Amino acid sequence: MSRTPRHRAAVVGTGHRAQTFTRALAERPDHVVAALCDPSPVRMAFHNRLLAEAGAPTATRWEPDRFADMLAEEEIDEVVVTTVDAEHDRYIVPALEAGCRVVTEKPMTVDADRCARILDTVRQTGNSLTVAFNYRFNPVHEKVRALLAQGAVGEILSVHFEWLLDVRHGADYFRRWHREKDRSGGLMVHKSSHHFDLVNWWLGDEPRDVFGYGRLAFYGPEAGERHGLRRHYDRAHGAGPAADDPFALDLAANDTLRALYLDAEGDDGYVRDRNVFGGPVTIEDDMAVLVRYAKGATMTYHLTAYSPWEGYRVMFNGSAGRLELEVEESRWQRPTTRIGSDSGALHGDTAAEHAGGARLTLRPLWRAPVDVPLVTAHEAHGGGDPRMLDALFGPVGPDRSARTVAHPTATERDGALALAVGLAANRCFETGRPVDVRDLVPELWRGDQVQAR
């Protein structure tokens, strides 16, 4: 049967994460990837191969400077933005102005000015923006939300969230562009916005005041020298000192990483395998944050990006008891040298080596604790990715009814509220003083601002 696509989509930014969206759109008969936009012809050619493997037509290739022309000439009505975080607004704004439906990878953007520009465009055009917070669609996280909404712990008074990135996945943010805060916003914006959105969603509340401390304690040249971990090379490819470095990434050893990055270096000069103990690094790897919410609850949050194991612990303290969640995404990491073959561990896209499990415990007052049964998945991001894609683009496949999700996707307001916590934390790291998020992103509380739908 011939395909008769109704939505003509463009994928902007064709790096590793974009594969998720390219494949998802190719699988759905009501969508077609009509165009790809990226500074690298090599990376776009890789994504066209993905489309061909899925039996979908290949897409036309466009340079970023011709994005507006692409929207018009290709009759695009759906745009997926997966570029460097600092460039999200460059594509979100004109796509909204052109009347397209826009889906952007998290974070929505990286600073308050860009955030205000996006919010103003949504308000002026009346068009919608969806932020791809896949953690909302993890079945374990949905169970937590349901219990809290049912009053399992009564009024929620405080939350503690500890997140650990291990020395495989955590180190990867210090090999690539994410280590430059002006491009990624740092881990408080690029990664922790996942969790800030989750807590906002779990609590049904908005953040108000933020305070925190952060520093580069493990990665970077100074810490690397201090801990005796530094090897002296700029990037791993072709470097002798990297041969036995457990923190080195061997791009040539992985077909996907080689095709997307090593082979594409001549296009834009992007180096994907920098030394995590080389310079410069302008982001933090150890961060402690305190957040107060509008209804009075507080959250303590700690991120460690150099842990032996990967996962997170979340505790909700309420007037009727306590709810405890522990998720082991990777129980430990072996000191494998020249990492290259296990890209899932690098990106969180598949189950990590030595994956653990999830445990949810309800501890009511005056009664014995209860272990809550969980449905867990070792698919991408704990099953969050496939269920989010179903919510974004419609379900596909024989089990589509089982993956139907009742709750909505995240809006631009949700994206801005999660971003505001990370931006406020970054400001605290610089000044040592608490920040009211309403001072950072006042557009969120303007009377005519688009509200959460």
Task: Walk me through this protein's architecture.
With 453 residues, this protein is α/β, with parallel strands linked by helices. The protein has a domain at 135-381 and 411-436: Dihydrodipicolinate Reductase, domain 2 (2-Layer Sandwich). Helices cover 32% and strands 22% of the residues. The chain has 17 helices and 16 strands. The chain has helices spanning 18-27, 41-53, 67-73, 88-97, 112-125, 139-149, 169-172, 181-184, 187-190, 193-203, 221-226, 255-262, 265-268, 343-347, 384-393, 412-431, 437-440, and strands at residues 7-12, 31-37, 60-62, 78-81, 101-105, 129-132, 156-166, 207-215, 286-293, 298-307, 310-318, 321-330, 358-364, 370-371, 410-411, 435-436. The strands form 2 sheets. Strands 14-13-12-11-7-10-9-8-16 form a 9-stranded mixed beta sheet. Strand 2 (31-37), helix 2 (41-53) and strand 3 form a beta-alpha-beta unit. Helix 6 (139-149) packs parallel to helix 10. It is globular and about 65 Å long. Residues 448-453 have low confidence and may be disordered.
